[in-house]
Amino acid sequence: MATTTPVPTETECPPIDFGELKSNCVAPRPSIMGQKRGLRSILWLSFKGIVRGLLTTLSYFRRPSTVVTQQYPENRDTLEMFERYRGRLSLIHNEEGEHGCTACQICERLCPNASIIITKDKKNEATGKPALDQFIWRQDTCTFCNICVLVCPFDTLEMTGDFESSVFDRRLLVFNLNEYAGPTAGQLDKLEDDELAKAQMKPMNKYQGPVPMCGGEMDGIPKLDVEKPTDA
Amino acid sequence: MADALLNPLSLTLSVQTSEAFAAPAMSLADRASRALESGVWGAVMYIVIGLVAVLTAVSVLGLVMSYIERKVAGHFQCRLGPMRVGPHGVLQSLADGIKLLFKEGIEPGDGDKVIFIGAPIFSITATILLLAIVPLAPGIQVVDMNVGVVYIAAVSGLGVMGILMGGWSSNNKWSLLGAMRAGAQMISYEVSLTIALLVVVLFSGTLKVSEIIESQQQGWWIWRGHGVAIVAFCLYVIASTAELNRTPFDLPEGESELTGGYHTEYSGLRFSFFFLAEFANLFVFSALAVTFFFGGWLPFHVGNYEGFNSVMDLLPPVISPIFWFGSKCATLIFILMWFRWTFPRLRMDQLMRLEWKVLLPIGFANLILAATVVLSGLYFFPSAT
């Protein structure tokens, strides 16, 4: 009496590749509707479904370990954000404090609301290649769409789990992401002279250069020893 | 006597139990009518006690049940529920109550003011009237009338009126749709509910609630009436879920389609009246299920097995009804909450089809079967009644 609908096979329903995110197409469960089944079979399936649903919720109820709620202000010290959470954007720096950004500006061009501004040194003295000067990120306009992270050819950007970004002045939300102005880690490694490589890494302050703070002073923000850029 | 000397415990227990159960405990209404013979003021005192007790019960139940519901709901959905107000959020419902107290009671400009104000009062009155007949312990009952089951069927149908009035007078399409759904649903499921209760009436041979409990001295009807009682109990649970407007039958207030259903336009204290009535009703229907199918405040007894029964009677007579009634009622309430947070909502036509094409025929067949069982004395321990 009972007939089974053919379950889609792997070939009919191939896994979809979204780059980093892989999704396996879930084969639809055969529905009990529209099939020629006896009354007893339908009753049994319905009963099984009801019991299965009840047991599923009960298993969550029984085990407090399944609770996903974070008691945020209390567990602030131990809070672990989720891997895919999109908080503050960050430029990845390695253990030696060197980043991998070549200032190719792809992220700047693809940013939908122009939240990234990159200034660069067209030709570094030591490497002879363009080097990053400032990676300015406007957190106040950013929509955390993740496009910059996805398009970066060198995987130097990431969205961190840092979400505590409230400030009392919105000017503080525009800042530099790079810790130094200079060539990438790879280019610095190629230089034989370590001293020369060190000399290329000019330390960069968070609120230095053409950002709204621009070396200004504010409570809690240390005074920067940089000159305001003068209009040429 | 020798047996009693050998086992003094059993003697004291049997004395205690016979004292507790043998003399028919009087409800508050009975006491009032007896007091009326000597004077008016005694009767008035009993009536005031009854009213205060029921009103307190409604408000306390509303507070406690809404807290428990939110906690249980949270844990069913991998959440914690209220955690901020007091330790583990125990004062949450109190805070909500105070908030609702201070909110403005808005009336829709084009609505029917009188009916609008009257609807929540009607709704909570039905709950109070129902709560009056719930026997919590021997003698702890406001009214114990000889047509108790008829009264329950009549009064539980009264709650629909409040919902219909509220939906109609709001002059709002969502409210009206919700109220019409509530009317159709509650009147339909009322039939199944009553038929399920009638099975127990057949078994116990009485309509009086306290006598129904006493007829379960030898064992609760849920297992003494074996299959028939279990089917009746399942019918009762499904029908009472529908009567209470809880998921999977919460069409009258289905948030996703009707915003708030019949109480869309209500705010402040009037809303909290609907809210209180809903949660108190949850308790009342569970308590009635306990009364009819699980022996009310009676401990678990198996026929004439004295040894087993005396173990079950070990609790002192004051604590015993509280423990047995409380634990049974809490279990049933938990099951209703479990249903609510597991099943998705039904469609209106599915709801009606379930009642008129499935539950009602099963209910009638079950009633006829119950009559057969009673006539042939097929249930367990028939000699006891």
UniProtKB/TrEMBL annotation, chain A:
InterPro entries: 4Fe4S_Fe-S-bd (IPR017896), 4Fe4S_Fe_S_CS (IPR017900), NADH_quinone_OxRdtase_chainI (IPR010226). This is NADH-quinone oxidoreductase subunit I. Signal peptide: none annotated. It comes from Stieleria magnilauensis. GO terms for molecular function: oxidoreductase activity. Keywords: 4Fe-4S, Cell membrane, Iron, Iron-sulfur, Membrane, Metal-binding, NAD, Oxidoreductase, Quinone, Repeat, Translocase, Ubiquinone. It holds the Pfam family Fer4_7. Its EC number is 1.6.5.11. The keyword Lyase does not apply. It is an enzyme of class 1 (oxidoreductase). Residues 89-121, 133-162 form the 4Fe-4S ferredoxin-type domain.
TrEMBL record, chain B:
It is found in: Cell membrane; Membrane. It comes from the Bacteria. Its EC number is 7.1.1.-. Pfam families: NADHdh. One of its GO terms (molecular function) is oxidoreductase activity. Its main location: membrane. The chain crosses the membrane at residues 44-68, 114-137, 149-168, 189-209, 221-239, 273-298, 318-339, 359-381. It is a multi-pass membrane protein. It is an enzyme of class 7 (translocase). It catalyses: a quinone + NADH + 5 H(+)(in) = a quinol + NAD(+) + 4 H(+)(out). Keywords: Cell membrane, Membrane, NAD, Oxidoreductase, Quinone, Translocase, Transmembrane, Transmembrane helix, Ubiquinone. The keyword Lyase does not apply. InterPro entries: NADH_UbQ_OxRdtase_su1/FPO (IPR001694), NADH_UbQ_OxRdtase_su1_CS (IPR018086). PROSITE patterns: COMPLEX1_ND1_1, COMPLEX1_ND1_2. NDH-1 shuttles electrons from NADH, via FMN and iron-sulfur (Fe-S) centers, to quinones in the respiratory chain. The immediate electron acceptor for the enzyme in this species is believed to be ubiquinone. Couples the redox reaction to proton translocation (for every two electrons transferred, four hydrogen ions are translocated across the cytoplasmic membrane), and thus conserves the redox energy in a proton gradient. This subunit may bind ubiquinone. NDH-1 is composed of 14 different subunits. Subunits NuoA, H, J, K, L, M, N constitute the membrane sector of the complex. Belongs to the complex I subunit 1 family. This is NADH-quinone oxidoreductase subunit H. The lineage of its organism: Bacteria, Pseudomonadati, Planctomycetota, Planctomycetia, Pirellulales. The gene is nuoH.
